[in-house]
Design brief:
By secondary structure, this protein is an all-beta fold. It has one domain (about 5-150). Helix content is about 0%, strand content about 35%. It has a four-stranded antiparallel sheet, with no helix packed on it.
Length: about 160
Amino acid sequence: MSGDLPVAGDWNNSGPAKVGVFRPTTGMWYLDYNGNGQWDGCGTDSCIHFGMSGDLPVAGDWDGSGSGKVGVFRPSTGWWYLDYNGNGQWDGCGTDRCINFGMSGDQPVSGDWDGSGTAKVGVFRPSTGRWYVDLNGNGQWDGCSVDGCYYFGTAGDIAVTGSW
């Protein structure tokens, strides 16, 4: 639908990434779970309510299990809420993950920054073209000497990540 945001991940641990969309007005995710490239409904594919109005989607293999999981970045606060256990629901910060990383105006990015097999959080700051990534995966900003600071892009760019 108009306003949906694209996402991608290996939702069922079969190897290749599959498509999906996040509807920021409702916090609903619609994921092509079976990977056939079309929407087959919630019974075959996956419908998940995770997030709230205004959140931005993030996806990653947060726990190293091989399957992509959902998460959201709340740009108004700089907080991340990650479905760490992959059950498609919010179980609180003790089971899932709450991370304060970034600030209002940042674009969320996720990636396996260190090749360990687990996705970590990061932000792209379009006002400066600067990336800040949690290289050590501890869920906090430790400064450019420990975590990653990169200049790549200019004002108005939209960040993308991948295993190029």
